[in-house]
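REQUEST ID: PR-0412
SUBMITTED BY: lab tech R.K.
PRIORITY: routine
TASK: structure prediction, single protein chain
INPUT:
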Amino acid sequence: MTPILALNGITKRFGAFTALDDVGFTIRPGEAVGLIGPNGAGKTTLFNIITGFLRADAGSVRFADRTIDTVAPARRVALGLARTFQTAMVFPGLTARENIAMAVRRRAGDGLRWFGGASGTDAASRLLDDAGLAHRADTLLRDMSHGERRIVDALMPLALSPRVLLLDEPTAGLTRAEGERLLDILRRQHAGTALLLVAHDVDIVLGHCDRVVVMELGRVIRIGTPAEVRDDAEVRRAYLGSPGGC
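STATUS: complete
OUTPUT:
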């Protein structure tokens, strides 16, 4: 199967510091790939390069069989490449339905154009209903629990029907049960959307991803299934911190 996203030789330096060193891997349509590694491994820098907020010093990003290294972030969203952020990007003075409706965008040849009205509201209502939050649709975000706000934050890019969704610590601050529920929702809502997931909770990643990419000091040290990664001695040494398993 042709990859929907392919990273080839991505290298990024900040002065004398090499944040990413020849990073490469692919993601297939509909696949969930986890990206793990200790702090400073380069995960967020890689996300910013994939989404266009940073330019790599070497290497290339290919999305849907085209090179997008010079494509602006907003245009990448229009092409079907969306992301969440570590800090929730919601509007606390608006309702859950209004937040998601604002994220619904019409793709146009010259970029993205915001629109609301019935189309945005209907899409928001469907997403909230599927996520089990229909009863909270008209609740202001500031009056919702942290877990509910994180779910709404994750549903906003899903309203764009992306082909690839990058999730940057979507379970941060959530209980294990809330994190499991959020990832179950994301995989159920758009089964055809490929996911690239960064999370410090290794069990969450191993339990919800088809493959896992392990990074250390800006380099990829292992790519494999969750079982292969769990049993890899170098991964345990570098990240999991256990000589006998995780």
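NOTES: The first strand starts at residue 5 and ends at 14.
REVIEWED BY: pending
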